[in-house]
Amino acid sequence: MNETTIKVEGMSCGGCVKNVTGVLKALPGVEDVRVSLEGASATVRHDPAKVSLDALRAAVEGAGFDSPA
Question: Distances from the Cα of 50 to the Cαs of 15, 19, 31, 53, in angstroms?
Fold first, then answer.
């Protein structure tokens, strides 16, 4: 398992945190997700053979947030 932290821009409340957590946890290969509103980031424990960094970012962007590299 890898642990990857990605930037998540555009979150403004606990609902945003819950939304980002949900879309990331729904991806195959994701074991755990910790989203920080204050840190504007998500730390994801995942199997890199099942889910890529690009897929993590795409899920965040699909939920309506920005995830710059």
Answer: 27, 21, 11, 10
